[in-house]
Amino acid sequence: MDWLENWNQALDYLEENLDREIKLEELGRLAGCSAYHFQRMFSYLAGVPLKEYIRRRRMTRAAADLRAGEKVLHVALRYGYDSPTAFNRAFQAVHGVAPSLAKQDGVKLKAFPRIRFKFVLKGDAEMEYQIVKREAFRIVGFRTPLPMDVEEGFQVVPRFWGEIGPRVGELIPLMDPETPGLLGVSTCHREEENYYYIAVASKAPAPEGACEWTVPAATWAVFSGTGQQPNAIQELQKRIVAEWLPDSGYEWAQAPDVEVYLNEPGTEEAQFQVWLPIQKVSGK
Asked: Can you tell me whether residue 53 is helix, strand or coil?
């Protein structure tokens, strides 16, 4: 399967550069997606944030280097730490002991083996979806910068919903009936600037303090769900990426991710949709 080969090539690059700068853009390029999507999909597939996985792998290598007799300062610099103090904190967070003790016999150290993706048959619950092509459409609403670090984004987005909540009522009357629902739009396909919008599809002027943006024409795989936010939608997104996407014949396209809330997001049983931008895998 091409996606498996691409993703394992990205992990090969990561392993080859543990003692150098690891460029997120290169990881995304090798895997066939954006840097943001790579982090997000890695977290879903591996069950650990990319940043934490890199730290664990570097500290695994660092422990082996120290056991081989290398000096703490040299090892610290090799893995990107400018001071022994910062390296000491990182090493202890993983191994539970100071790096200066790693050379002693009998000291317990931890090893985190590298990840390699392989095809595993799973998915005992069905997933209904639609493939929907849409022309470009305009949205009106409020936005906040979306960090390239996915784990930070998982904190920023719910906080932004809490901040904007009192103004959501201003958007509802502006909603285009052809695209009902309150939208959460992530422009994470654009490496130069990333935003998260809380908005509605609309042809009306933007309210004071709001902004507008045009969602480009794209093809989306549309999934529906219900449940308490933000956990329910994050769980659906995880299943889409980990269970549906790898064997679908599609890959993540360079287009926005869209969430559609068909009733109040804060309700106990929120009704929502996840739009995953897709394109056919090359050669299929």
From this structure: helix
What distance, in Å, lies between the first and last C-alpha atoms of the chain? 11
Ranges of H-type helices in the chain: 2-16, 24-31, 35-46, 50-67, 72-78, 84-95, 150-164, 168-171, 231-239
The predicted-structure confidence for 134-180, as pLDDT tens digits, reads as follows 999 999 999 999 888 888 888 898 899 899 988 999 999 999 998 99
Distance in angstroms (rounded) separating the CA atoms of residues 66 and 101: 9
Are β-strands 195-201 and 182-186 bridged in parallel, bridged antiparallel, or unpaired?
antiparallel
Please confirm whether the linkage preceding 230 is cis (ω < 30° from 0): yes
Cα–Cα distance measured from residue 56 to residue 51, given in angstroms and rounded to the nearest whole number: 9
Instruction: Report the distance separating Cα 166 and Cα 163, nearest Å.
Output: 7
Q: From CA 140, how far away is CA 278, in angstroms rounded?
A: 24
For the chain, what is the total number of helices (H) and then of strands (E)?
A: 9, 9
pLDDT of residue 125: 72
Which residue matches tokens 């056919």?
Answer: 280
Question: Minimal CA–CA distance to 241: which of 51, 43, 49, 54?
Answer: 43
> Which string of b and e fits 193-216 if b means at least 16 CB within 10 Å?
ebbbbbbbbbeeebeeebeebebe
Helix/strand/coil for 77: helix
